[in-house]
Amino acid sequence: VQLVESGGGSVEVGGSLRLSCTASGYRYWMGWFRQSPGKVREGVAAIRDDGITSYADSVKGRFTISKDNAKNTLYLQMNNLKPEDTGMYYCAARSMRYSPWGALDRRGYNDWGQGTQVTVS
Questions:
Q1: Taking phi first (over 0 means left), then psi (-120 to 50 degrees means alpha), and beta for anything else, what does residue 44 get?
Q2: Fewest CB within a 10 Å sphere: which of 20, 22, 57, 62?
Q3: Is residue 97 packed enough to be buried (19+ CB in 10 Å), middle (13-18) or exposed (0-12)?
Q4: pLDDT tens-digit readout, 90-115
């Protein structure tokens, strides 16, 4: 699975951004993760192949994950952005149907994009 993110940038507090990730190949779960300097990479949102979604508590009500199967593209709509949302955002894919790791646990994902930077100030 090849993953390529786009859509990052700098935005003011309260602003919005939409991240995109083009993906080739089958994936059971796809997710967005973020990492700030000195912090562990954390799961932000994930979507299963049947459309079931999962969100981190910190982004519920502000972020929406979606996918367009015809375009092989994953999206993350981010609204009401806060400074703590700053970080490198990574698209990830998990092809395994059964895994001991939860949908937002990075250990369950085997394919990663290069990341796109989001800065909120």
A1: alpha
A2: 57
A3: exposed
A4: 999 998 888 899 999 999 999 999 99
